[in-house]
Design a protein that fits this description.
The protein is mainly alpha-helical. The protein folds into two domains: 93 residues, no CATH class; 102 residues, no CATH class. It contains nine helices and three strands. A three-stranded mixed beta sheet has the order 1-3-2, sandwiched between helices. A hairpin with a 4-residue loop joins strand 2 and strand 3. It is globular. The mean pLDDT is 88.
Length: 196
């Protein structure tokens, strides 16, 4: 798979200068190999992960359906690799990868997954609870908040937020203060819901 386009996109968005040589993609042949690289026994739903620095580990497409509980879909497989590369770039830029909701949905936004993920959101009520940890429902709302922050408030403002995250102590309160400094309003559901 050619990863140059997603690296170029990340370099432009995050203002990085990473090359294809910086990243490693390790294709794992079976569950036993996944467990070995992950460092513990894994469930069949775990088919990819990163080392949080420079490597994406993913179950080889040849054994995808026999070694996992997922169906192999070529577009999803390639988009997942792109998604994980965006996570690595976000971590490289911010030094922490937090907030999780921002990290997850920026990865969806830049990797192209947004093109086929459009849950119907009537109001925000969950994404702020995913600052330190992820969870299944982190994906429900965060895609729209990132899209909103980029498209309604200018990409450059959003990039300014990303640029300054690395200056924080990785605490949620610090991020909330930074957000208000850049966007001029508190990040809470009442304020964000006004823009839906």
């Amino acid at each position: 798979m050619n990863i140059t386009p997603i690296i170029d996109k990340c370099n432009e968005f995050f203002q990085l200068k990473l090359s294809e040589d910086y990243f490693n993609i390790v294709y794992l042949k079976d569950r036993k190999e996944i467990d070995k690289y992950y460092g513990s026994k894994t469930a069949s739903r775990l088919i990819w992960f990163t080392n949080k620095k420079d490597t994406v580990y993913i179950l080889d497409k040849e054994n995808f359906e026999t070694e996992s509980d997922k169906k192999y879909i070529p577009r999803d497989y390639e988009t997942t690799i792109k998604h994980e590369i965006v996570h690595l770039c976000f971590r490289h830029k911010t030094w922490a990868g937090r907030p999780i909701w921002l990290n997850e949905w920026l990865a969806i936004y830049l990797s192209g997954k947004l093109e086929y993920r459009h849950p119907n959101i009537l109001k925000f009520s969950e994404f702020l609870s995913f600052y330190y940890e992820g969870g299944k429902s982190v994906y429900n709302e965060s895609w729209l908040i990132v899209k909103l922050l980029i498209e309604k408030f200018w990409t450059e403002t959003f990039k300014n937020l990303i640029e300054k995250i690395k200056l924080l102590n990785f605490k949620q309160k610090d991020f909330e203060f930074l957000f208000k400094e850049i966007y001029w309003f508190d990040i809470n559901y009442e304020n964000i819901n006004k823009y839906l």
